[in-house]
Amino acid sequence: MVKVSKSKYITNPVYLRGVLMGAILAVGANAWLYALQGYQKRKEEEERSVKTIKQTLLNTADSTSEEKLERCSAILKYGIAEDGRMVRYYTNHALVYNQQMRIPVWVAEHLTKENLQGKSTRRFATFMPDPAVDEEFTAENSDYWKSGWSRGHMSPAGNNKINPAAMQDSFYLSNVVPQNYENNAGYWNRLEMYCRDLTKKYSNVYIISGPAMIPEEEEDGKKYVKYQVIGENEVAVPTHLFKVIIVEDKHGATKAVSAFVVPNKPIGFEHHLKEFEVDLPGLERVLGIKLVKNLDRDKVESLCKVDGCKLIGKKEFELYFIGRKLESANTRERVEKVWSELEEKKLKPDRYLKKLYQKKLEEFEERERAKGS
User: Fold this and answer.
1) Predicted confidence band of residue 141 (pLDDT cuts 50, 70, 90)
2) What is the pLDDT of residue 5?
3) Cα separation of 129 and 173, whole Å?
4) What is the pTM of this model?
């Protein structure tokens, strides 16, 4: 019996060719398997995408034929174009954002006597871009600086004292529109105060606020929608602002609703809120939005008819602002200067202002005693 060493097998050309062919076949088989798995994975992803598109089409079209769905699934192979107009949720408000105009479409709130309470103030809040909005579609503070327009909250700071998170959320620029300063600090502010006062009479107050671009007829008899844009990001300046208010009684029954459209310009104290009340369906037609689709409108009266829609008067409004200045005053000199405004404006301080003034003076005296000891 002749023995053959292993080294002879290894050096044998026939053996080497066999090993090489086996390796090539193994690599080829693995590559084919990998390619097949990749194809199957891509096929599954494509099927999932088509399924998602079909479902979206089914959700958006009540009577779309299967043939149309198949065709549109092919047309929308690369997805349905998004404009970011989904509902965005925050601590104390919800909104839809317009990525093109860099302002909200609408902002919704729910006020009660309880959730208006809180010690959070705007002192520690900062206007800033909303981190939930893509950077390429957001407004910046620089857009507003030296523009001649103020940063107008749609969900105001006064409605968000419940906690610091709610307060800061209200300062995101997704909740802000370019607003005439006098309107923001004056008439619109009074309207916001009226909404808070409604919680003293009604258990629930629901509010939807936002910008509006209202067409105006020009000399040629044609109507145009024209609005300014500001800053590098071309933030749209609304021609008007709207607010829809719904109130409920203690049983949760809807008592009244009114819609208002206010021009984005200075409005004096001589104007009654009723002047700006509009037909709700008419407002929805202008906006192209069904604002309160779950409201049974046939059974609801006008808020102005039920409540009167009376805003705070000039005297009370000026006293209110002096009170705000006193609250934020952090030096004795500042307190005395604010207090002197009462005499300058020939206003008589109410009980609240007197107590606040005295409290401030006592705080400064206590600080001075603490420093001396």
Assistant:
1) very high
2) 47
3) 5
4) 0.79
Which residue intervals of the chain are DSSP H helices?
A: 6-11, 13-60, 66-75, 141-144, 164-170, 181-185, 187-197, 280-287, 303-307, 314-328, 332-344, 351-372
Instruction: Give the Cα separation of 48 and 54 in Å (integer).
Output: 10
Q: How far apart are the first and last CA of the chain?
A: 115
Among residues 211, 199, 194, which one has the least CA distance to residue 153?
211
Show contacts of 164-168: CB within 8 Å, 24+ apart: 164/120, 164/124, 164/125, 165/91, 166/90, 166/91, 166/92, 166/93, 166/118, 166/120, 167/120, 167/121, 167/122, 167/124, 167/125, 168/125, 168/126
pLDDT at 324: 86
Integer Cα distance of 258 and 141 in angstroms: 33
**Which one of the listed residues 93, 110, 153, 240 is annotated catalytic?**
153
What local confidence, expressed as pLDDT, does residue 330 receive? 87
| Structure-block tokens of residue 372 | 């001396």
Task: Please give the structure tokens belonging to residue 214.
Answer: 């209202």
Contact between 138 and 233 under an 8 Å Cβ cutoff? The reply is yes
Among candidates 86, 124, 123, which has minimal Cα distance to 104?
86
Helix (H, G, I), strand (E, B) or coil at 128: strand
8 Å CB contact between 125 and 92: no
Contact 151, 180 (CB under 8 A): no
Cβ–Cβ under 8 Å, residues 108 and 206? yes
Annotated catalytic residue 272:
no
pLDDT category, 195, cuts 50, 70, 90? very high
In the DSSP assignment, the letter for residue 298 is G
Cα 72-36-43 angle, rounded to 5 deg: 15
